[in-house]
Amino acid sequence: TGFLYKTQGEYQDNSSSDNEAKAEIIINTSEKKNSWVWPFYRQVQALNGDIITICEVEIDTGVKCNKRYKTKGSTGNLINHLLKHGITKDNPQPQKITKITSKPSVIPHEEKKQQELRQHLVNWLVCDSRPLSIVQNEFFHRFVDELDPRFNIPDVKLIKQIIHKAYNYAVPLLKEDLKNNAIKVSLTMDLWTSHNRKGYIGITCSYIDENFKLNEITLSIQYIAYPHTATHIRETVNSIIDYWELNEKVQSIVTDNAANIKKAVSGMANIDWQGCSSHTLQLVVGKSMKPCRALIARAKRLIQFFLQPKHSEQLEEVQKLYPNKSSVDPSQTSDYLIHCISDCITRWNSSYLAWTRLVQIKPYISLMINHLLLHNDSNIRKDGKQLRDIMLTESEWDLIIELLQVLGPIEEATTCLGGSKYTTHSLLYRLIESLKKRFKPNKNDRISNDKLDFNTEDDVFDEDNDFEFEFNNDENTQIQININTPLYELYEERKAFAENEKNENEKQTQTNNIIDKCSNTIINLLYVPSLIKSLDKEEAIQNEVNEYLDLPQIGLNNNSLVWWELHSTKFPILSELSRIYLAIPATSTPVSDCLAMLVIY
User: Where is the HAT C-terminal dimerisation domain (predicted)?
Assistant: First the structure.
């Protein structure tokens, strides 16, 4: 026909010959048309009978726009196109400085090349979370036109069509991959509220395939109406699981410790709820830091002072005047200078990061106080007096440094458990054991924590609990903080394979207990007739477990999935179990990262 459908209502000439391109019937437009847009357009009829409206606006001397649209009476697309030329009903004069279309003298790419370039454009928009409206930007058009004037930039409608087409193409493939390569899957779930106060639910899926590769898929980020009750959340999650045909494969869902989410998952049949270990760590830290509320408030006030633009610039000026106080190069821009970081209660390890930066700028704060107090401007001298009044005492600085030594291991553990390129579940027990030993109280502790009990979930996760600490020292003695975290006790029931430093008798006893507990699980979850048929089930399981426990433990820097891939033939049953349980994320970080990228326009 000489035309291919480009967008909704838009046509592009892709004829193989000039004769075919000219095979159009000019329509008689002598009849009166009411809309103000028609003086800027002419109409022709294509061979297939479609009515094509062509823009007659002159974009350069002797050069017309010639943009083509399929119209059926509506003028909405025509009006929107004229806006690109700066033409409105009240201002009918075109603005020739805006060049939207490519040069008519340049022959566009063939459709195959156009599709390839459009796909690259869409990949960039999607993977980099760019707004689709960027393709309407005049300077984006100019930029692309300089790079490749033969490329016709698609509009938002066409981009949406490409995205939907790609989604509809990918979903069946992902479903098939999950069906064939995933023994079990683990989900992470979280709720998020946008700036317009609408709630969204995000769900990701992780599994280990037959090649022992950890895979992660975003199943859904969708609007969820209020109220966010446990029942409503459960129904929404079940509908997403049904859509992805994972009813028989989901073994666990990792979430934070919000009561409604936990209750929603706990009420789902044959699915285990797993609390986010990083969120649990942050809750424990928050409880344990309550004796330092006064210090936290004073440090936050000092940080807020330097977060103000005026005082931030004053801090930069001092750093440039006294470069020897640190490695700061005074010739560098402000990006290379040290600035404060806000302390936000909802951001993990926020206090640790904010206080670390505050300690770094401590030498400059004293210099800044003197610098401001000696200034000729009275308003600046007032800033110096304010800074002097809110400055921390030496004992408070010392206590912050001690607290950083406590919070440092927590920050390292949280960062490690939030990884996505390796199996975090295999690190969980060792990290918890390490933290337990690091913070184990001793007889010299000067804090009496008789009233503090974190051994129950109610105490740990209750945000309204307020614990009073008793100190066995006088008021002039510096408060010493030593976090006594019971996080390990909360996971006591999940540490079956965590303790390996046992003598031979204890190891044999432990092995027998594991065999008793695991036999039914292995048979129920992994009964593969071709594998078990030639082996005695009890003996095969016992031999594998015994041989596995006799091996030395690999280091934290080693990839456990690589190890299991290399030993899958030697441990056929345990390697299948590893694909199930190592896929469980230790935190809900995967879905949190997805929601963090969500922008509502």
Answer: 544-589
DSSP string, 461-494: H-TT--PPPEESS-TTSPP-------HHHHTGGG
CA distance 141 to 172: 35
- Give me the chain's average pLDDT, please: 77
Among the listed residues 111, 149, 107, 112, the one whose alpha carbon sits nearest the alpha carbon of residue 18:
107
pTM of the model: 0.64
CA–centroid distance for 411 within its chain: 18
Query: Which has the higher per-residue pLDDT, 468 or 106?
Result: 106
The pair of structure tokens assigned to 340 is 């404060």
pLDDT digits (tens, 9 = 90+) for 359-383: 999 989 989 999 899 888 899 999 9
Phi-psi region at 392: left, alpha or beta (left = phi > 0; alpha = psi -120 to 50): beta
CA–CA–CA angle 571, 576, 579 (5° rounding): 125
Which residues, in sequence order, are CB contacts of 238 under 8 Å at separation 6+? 268
If one counts every other C-beta atom within 10 angstroms of the C-beta of residue 408, the result is: 14
pLDDT at 324: 64
CA–CA distance, 416 with 414 (Å, rounded to integer): 5
List own/partner pairs for 253-259 with CB under 8 A and 24 or more apart: 253/186, 253/187, 253/188, 253/189, 254/186, 254/187, 254/188, 254/189, 254/584, 254/585, 254/586, 254/587, 254/588, 255/188, 255/189, 255/190, 255/588, 256/190, 256/588, 257/283, 257/461, 258/191, 259/461
337-356 mean pLDDT: 85
Residue 376: what residue type? N
At residue 272, the 3 state secondary structure works out as: strand
